[in-house]
Amino acid sequence: MTEQTQEQASPAVKKRVQDSFDRQGLMALLGARLTHIGPGRVHIVLLARTEVTQQHGYVHAGATSAIADSAGGYAALTLFDEDSEVLTVEYKINLLAPAAGEHLEAIGIALKSGRTLTVCQLSAVP
After folding, report:
1. Which helix (H) or strand (E) holds 109?
2. Which helix (H) or strand (E) holds 40?
3. DSSP alpha helices (H): ranges in the chain?
4. What is the pTM of this model?
């Protein structure tokens, strides 16, 4: 599904998520960028530059995990009121194949939003 066919968040939510993302030093260091902000859904793209690869030339699992974690957190944030913040309390990652290709796209989808915890599905695909 392309960004054009996906539901977009309101301008206020998009600004809040983008402003928060822009304050993340790690995302800046990695060179990651937000490419979609929708209600309960966020995409983050990371170019496969030498600086984020491991010794075999694949995107490092740490970089993969970082963008997936952020995509999930921001997917949750799109569903919260403007005074809310999010922090990751737990996540598990299964690396099914090497992260090969020109870029990696992390997709965070909020599956169930509760009063204190929101469960998200994270994926990272080339």
Report:
1. strand 103-113
2. none
3. 11-22, 25-30, 61-77
4. 0.93
